[in-house]
Amino acid sequence: MDLKQLNAFIAVAELRSFSAAATKIGLSQPSLSRLLKQLETDMGVMLVDRYHRPLHLTEAGTFFYDKISTILTEVNTVVGMTQRLSAPSSALNIGFVPSILYGLLPEIIARLKQSNPEIEVNLKDISSYQQMEALKSGDIDIGFGRFAHQDPWIQQILLRHERYVVALPKAHPLANVREQCLIDLANNRLILYHQTHLPASTVPATVSNKNAKQNKKNNTSHHQASAIEQVTEPLLYLFAQYGISPFMTTTVSDLQVALGLVAAGEGITLVPASLKTVRTSQISYQRLIHENVTSPIYLHTLKDFVHPNIPDLLRATYHVYEQRGITYRRQKFESQR
């Protein structure tokens, strides 16, 4: 039994087609068939029922796939990390979520290149959760995201918290109110745009005493407050912390679409403050009074391999924060030298 045989089996199990599996792993179909047959011979077990279309796994094959797929992913990750450790790429591949690009990321990259003129930087638009797999596969070396993750292969540091602002159509009755309260926004259509939701394990079962007082003040129900544990959509969770449920919601594919609908008068949304320069002729951005209604910014990288240029990226980030007067706590990744 070897890695080529296992990878051939995993490809067939996932695609249920010898031809598609052969294409995926870059082999001819006869070569893939031989690898799979040799694996079955070595194990003394038939893993694939070849007499059905599409192909079916046998009961033993299903069991083997369930157990081996995770192990094989880890093995492939270790192999890739070992290769990168022995010969690090000269380029720094940075993943980012779109909202980061509207903030200080361009300024940070400019500072990084100014202090390291020889550095090659590649930027990739990729969601927070997709960044986890991209780090393991080597597609990116580091990622800027908005969500905390629990992954044994990944380490992360919190850069800072960014306040949310409310985005309202210019003609909205609250468009010129300088400080907004979530309860006053509850009767609007809230436009949701996050493709990544909060992990259920991070959502508390009850609200804090401070929020409970706010709930009482706002005449919200105990049912609403206790439902927080079921709310994983990030914007709805912000409302749920105060026992508030928006009157109506619309879900769209991304942040730009959400702001387009706000500009068209189709609802309101909440965005990190760095986006308040977008569509300003059509959208009014106003501050929220709630200090805990924030969007964190995290940096993620592998635990066991930190790209040589990541310390330079961190220094550039903190330099920009200091120039902007942004509060932060200086940190470094564990395996940074």
Quick description:
With 337 residues, the chain is of the alpha/beta class.
Notes on the protein architecture:
The protein has 337 residues and is an alpha/beta fold. It has 3 domains: 3-86, Orthogonal Bundle (Arc Repressor Mutant, subunit A), CATH 1.10.10; 91-160 and 296-324, Periplasmic binding protein-like II (D-Maltodextrin-Binding Protein, domain 2); 161-295, D-Maltodextrin-Binding Protein, domain 2 (3-Layer(aba) Sandwich), CATH 3.40.190.10. 41% of the residues lie in helices and 19% in strands. The protein has 13 helices and 12 strands. It has helices spanning 3-15, 18-25, 29-43, 59-86, 98-101, 105-115, 128-137, 182-185, 209-217, 222-226, 234-240, 255-263, 310-324, and strands at 48-49, 56-57, 91-96, 120-125, 142-145, 154-169, 179-180, 189-192, 248-251, 269-272, 283-288, 294-302. The strands form 3 sheets. Strands 3, 4, 5, 6, 7, 10, 11 and 12 form an 8-stranded mixed β-sheet that branches. The protein has a two-stranded antiparallel sheet with strand order 1-2. The longest helix has 28 residues, at 59-86. The two termini are 39 Å apart. Residues 204-228 have low confidence and may be disordered. One of its GO terms (molecular function) is DNA-binding transcription factor activity. Belongs to the LysR transcriptional regulatory family. Pfam families: HTH_1, LysR_substrate. Residues 1-58 form the HTH lysR-type domain. It comes from Psychrobacter arcticus (strain DSM 17307 / VKM B-2377 / 273-4).
